[in-house]
């Protein structure tokens, strides 16, 4: 199986892509990440905007129309969705084999 060179995604990138399944602007992305991670991940604006620039260049997200013209709004692209799904599948596989191995080690 050939593995995408973008995998595994960093935790930050994973949460940004997940937050952008629905269109969102920067502050909303930060709020969604904190909510999705149950407070485990809090992102500073500088970190977020640097990551957004990289994701735009990689064509994993794209700007989208918004009612609020003062804020840039983004959404995940098809390529971004495919990468997010691939990383999800990778992690599910890891959890499943870990569970199998841990059950085998129980006494």
Care to describe what's here?
Helix 1 (11-19) packs across helix 2. Strands 1-3-2 form a 3-stranded antiparallel β-sheet. It has one domain (11-104): Winged helix-like DNA-binding domain superfamily/Winged helix DNA-binding domain (Arc Repressor Mutant, subunit A). The protein is mostly helical. 56% of the residues lie in helices and 9% in strands. It starts with 10 loop residues before the first helix and ends with a helix. The protein is built from 4 helices and 3 strands; from the N terminus they run αβααββα. It has helices spanning 11-19, 26-36, 45-57, 78-104; strands at residues 24-25, 61-64, 73-76.
Work out the strand percent: 5-15%
- Specify the CATH class: Mainly Alpha
Helix content: 55-70%
The separation of the N and C termini measures: 34 Å
CATH superfamily: Winged helix-like DNA-binding domain superfamily/Winged helix DNA-binding domain
Quantity of strands, as a count: 3
User: Under CATH, the topology is which?
Assistant: Arc Repressor Mutant, subunit A
Overall pLDDT confidence: 92
Largest sheet: 3 strands, antiparallel
Integer count of domains: 1
Oligomer: single chain
The secondary-structure class comes to mainly alpha
Give the SSE string: HEHHEEH
* CATH architecture verdict: Orthogonal Bundle
**Poorly predicted tracts of residues:** none
Global outline: elongated
Radius of gyration: 16 Å
């Amino acid at each position: 199986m050939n593995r995408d060179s973008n995998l595994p995604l960093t935790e930050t990138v994973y949460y940004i892509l997940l937050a952008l399944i629905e269109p969102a602007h920067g502050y909303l992305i930060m709020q969604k990440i904190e909510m999705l991670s149950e407070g485990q991940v809090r992102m500073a604006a500088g970190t977020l905007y640097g990551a957004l620039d990289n994701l735009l260049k990689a064509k994993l997200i794209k700007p989208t129309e918004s009612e609020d013209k003062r804020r840039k709004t983004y959404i995940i692209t098809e390529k971004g969705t495919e990468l997010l799904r691939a990383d999800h599948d990778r992690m599910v596989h890891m959890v499943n084999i870990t569970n199998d191995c841990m059950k085998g080690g129980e006494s």
